[in-house]
Design brief:
14 helices, 2 domains, 75% helix, single chain, elongated
Length: 358
């Protein structure tokens, strides 16, 4: 049981306890009042109303015990019925019982005593509720899950609001920078990044297309644009994105983003062996601390499961290969990657269905 559930139960139990105490006092008072009514009053309507309310109170208790009525409605209805009973009972005459009714002597002391008890408990109910609220709702008390959670939610909401405001301000600043310096590539790349942070795909793509024009199809910009187009399509590597990926890999076969999207496009086509090979190429050229390694490995595993392909250790690069690639010069690494990509393309052309060979 969670801390919140336990404290809510405590609150309901204590609130229900007050209701039961009030009900007991009211019943005692009503019985005394009814004894005073017998033989001394012909007000049948008053007696009938009291009987009706007492029956309603009994039915309410039964509904509560059977779970047909909730705690909040039960407490509110209890309070309403008991107040009405108290008001009706106070309309009884202050005269002694008539002899021969089965009760002897003056019932006024009992009525006054029961009435004082009922009124006292009637007042105690909201006071008790206030005490319960004070113990559960005061922010200065320690170890209070309800209060702590409320404060945490409020703090998180403020943080999210502040973050959204910061991101919106960053976007506005980036847009202003492109207006001030429309030929500055960095300004357009900054705008694309700021737009991506607020999921403004249209602005991001427009900024990257402008950067593409300014850089004469720089592979890094084309790779970013391919990713933005795919993200705008809910993760689907679209035909325009694939054309960009092919252009990037023809120029820079070591571009990690293009290699990742190249594998993703094969996966989305159901070519799981191709996806595995492409992602394994990405693993081969990545440094051991590359941040995308975990997700690439997971993708390879998912592709193997989807294609019912047995992964063998020799199909992927080992730690020594990764370390060796990391120690290569940029020129040597690019040459190695280019040869791997060309070999992969040749295999895809000659044996596209050889899943065992992959």
């Amino acid at each position: 049981m969670s801390p919140v559930d336990s404290e809510m139960i405590v609150m309901f139990v204590m609130g229900g306890g007050f209701c039961l105490l009030l009900a007991g006092a009211m019943l005692a008072y009503i019985r005394a009042a009814r004894r005073g009514l017998v033989g001394i009053s012909d007000d049948a309507d008053l007696r009938g109303e009291i009987d009706r309310l007492m029956l309603a109170r009994t039915a309410l208790d039964q509904d509560h015990q059977s779970g047909r009525i909730g705690e909040t409605d039960y407490a509110a209805t209890c309070l309403d019925i008991d107040r009405r009973l108290l008001a009706l009972s106070q309309q009884t005459p202050d005269t002694p019982n008539t002899p021969g009714t089965g009760d002897t002597g003056d019932t006024r002391p009992a009525l006054r005593q029961s009435g004082r008890l009922a009124i006292g408990l009637l007042l105690a109910l909201p006071v008790g509720a206030a005490v319960i609220y004070a113990s559960l709702g005061r922010p200065d008390l320690a170890d209070n899950p309800l209060v702590n959670r409320t404060a945490e939610i409020a703090s998180r909401t403020q943080m999210i609001t502040a973050t959204k405001q910061d991101l919106a301000q960053n976007l506005a600043n980036a847009q202003a920078a492109t207006v001030a310096s429309p030929d500055d590539v960095e300004s357009w790349l900054t705008l694309a990044e700021a737009a991506a942070a607020v999921n403004d795909s249209a602005t991001e793509i427009r900024a990257l297309r402008t950067a593409r024009q300014l850089t004469n199809d720089d592979p890094a910009v084309l790779s970013l644009l391919a990713e933005a187009l795919s993200r705008a399509a809910d993760g689907q590597v679209t035909v325009p994105a694939r054309a960009l990926i092919n252009t990037v890999l023809a120029t820079d076969p070591a571009d990690p983003r293009a290699l990742f999207l190249w594998g993703l496009s094969a996966f989305q086509d159901g070519s799981y062996a191709d996806a595995i090979s492409r992602w394994q190429t990405l693993l081969s050229i990545s440094t051991p601390d590359a941040p995308w390694l975990p997700i690439v490995r997971r993708n390879i595993q998912q592709a193997a499961e989807a294609g019912d392909i047995l992964l063998e250790s020799e199909n992927g690069p080992d730690a020594d290969s990764l370390a060796a690639a990391a120690d290569m010069s940029a020129q040597d690494r690019d040459a190695m990657i280019l040869s791997m990509v060309e070999a992969l393309r040749d295999r895809l052309r000659t044996t596209p269905d050889d899943t065992e060979g992959w």
